[in-house]
């Protein structure tokens, strides 16, 4: 080391010593550095003990609450947030060990939006436990004016920016005219409703409501209703008991100790999960307007969300997310299949198929900004219809046994945790031992659609056997293995899958009995868009751009005909079609493509050179010479390079073509 470098090193060490001894010292409490608010990847699971009453005369809910939790993270916690607002309608007081805890606010600020921040009196070290005591109230202006009141965000709760699982003990005093339903199960001795590992604890108050109940194993199922709807209430209750028992057997568990069904809106348009252990079914007073299968399906559907959304939490940017909805619908499909009601799920896919036909962008994985720009019913078309279609297609291609392992593993590993697309894909790849990027990229991260069709079938007898060839063509933009089943007259059947890398598959079946029929996707597991939607100029451009430069002659020919129909004015479409049609030896079509391309540009003379190439191949030498001369006269844009043919076009190349006709190598 030279003297100059040594002097730099000494100076740096001196500066470091000065900084360490004289620099600003971080604030510490009990040996831990004080930090701003931060969010653990897996927050501590808290226990809430709530005592409250609802005063109908004052239209007020008020109560006390104790929040207990242990810091299960590796870092100290100094600052916490609560999902609660402070205003003239809501109040809050916090104490720890009898001492008031101030809430972070600007001087003179009275109203505070959610979430609100507060500092703990002492840093909560990893492994240490804390008890927060809260006194709160909120007004209920709807009380007295409505017969049905649903409350989901009704008490202060630790806020982490996403849902977590918590444990609850809740005791309530409610006006005598209201029946009370909650997310918990009543402990008769203590008077508390208890629930463990729940996303949210919901309350429902109904005037003149009654409840009927039954057990599904150890799960208490209750259905609230008014007198006129008692017949439907009995159907919903018996269905719910059957569903809970079925799910427990099919999936190995039912995650909660109670389930409550409450009335929803007036129209029979479905339902929704109100909170953990509580679902609403719409249109109960119009029971006879729809068949019993509707009520059975919607009950199974909403209970499915107790697994996907309540037990396993959503990590997608939308509140529920395609994955929770898709897995929930897959769950209720298993029940419907077992009870002979599978047709409904083909209808579920139809909403997505119609969206494709309307040329809607059904890409699932969008940014928040892109979602803001969506101007159609994204919830129904994409989140519900496509979400289920993706899960159904995945189960189809991976097989029932593999998908069952994926389902069970997600339930076990993500109970109380958030599951998103990337975590789900990782589980699928680990269980299937496959790289599934091709599947998720097409289905989740693109607007591609699935369209396959059997275009021919031929069966011949060879000695004592029958050989059947089935031709299956890909008509859409999404490529995946699709099931094809051949049925024979001896009641046997054979299943084969197409190869996703081939545009055209010819499947061979050998049998001892004559062929009866062939079906593609016989169980209706795939959202096949057949026939495919009419192509737009935008899609034509996109599909042409995505096409390879060689070996795609048939695909190029199909796109050529589409470009003719649309009378495309896109130079890039025609130039690429010209080259790919030439590659596939569709010379007449390639010539027309280059002629159309030449009309759309003045500065790309090389497309005129290519006209000469093709005319030479077709034996039309005089016309070829005219094209070469025209290209030389234009001059601009005559240079081009085509590495797939080791060809470099320039002025010398064209002048040589005047002497020697072009020959394809």
Write the layout of secondary structure elements.
Elements: H1 3-22, E1 28-29, E2 32-33, E3 47-55, E4 60-70, E5 77-82, E6 90-96, E7 99-100, E8 116-124, E9 129-139, E10 148-151, E11 166-173, E12 178-182, E13 185-186, E14 193-198, E15 203-207, E16 210-216, E17 219-225, H2 230-251, E18 258-263, E19 271-275, E20 278-281, H3 292-304, E21 313-314, H4 321-338, H5 343-357, H6 368-373, H7 378-398, H8 400-413, E22 418-419, H9 421-432, H10 437-443, E23 452-462, E24 465-474, E25 483-488, E26 493-497, E27 504-511, E28 515-520, H11 537-546, H12 553-566, H13 571-583, H14 587-599, H15 606-617, H16 621-634, E29 640-642, E30 647-649, H17 651-659
Parallel strand pairs: 3-11, 17-18, 18-20, 21-22
Antiparallel strand pairs: 1-2, 3-4, 4-9, 5-8, 6-7, 6-9, 10-15, 11-14, 12-15, 13-14, 16-17, 19-20, 23-24, 24-27, 25-26, 25-28, 29-30
Main features:
Neutral Protease, domain 2, eight-stranded mixed sheet, disordered N terminus, 17 helices, 665 residues, five-stranded mixed sheet
How would you describe this protein?
This protein is of the alpha+beta class. It folds into five domains: 1-146 and 153-199, Immunoglobulin-like (Sandwich), CATH 2.60.40; 209-306, Orthogonal Bundle (Neutral Protease, domain 2); 314-443, Neutral Protease, domain 2; 452-520; 537-659, Tetratricopeptide repeat domain (Serine Threonine Protein Phosphatase 5, Tetratricopeptide repeat, Alpha Horseshoe), CATH 1.25.40.10. Helices cover 35% and strands 26% of the residues. The protein has 17 helices and 30 strands. The strands form nine sheets. Strands 7-6-9-4-3-11-14-13 form an eight-stranded mixed sheet, with no helix packed on it. α2 (230-251) packs across α3, α7 crosses α8 and α16 (621-634) packs antiparallel against α17. The radius of gyration is 34 Å and the shape is elongated. The two termini are 64 Å apart. 35% of the residues are buried.
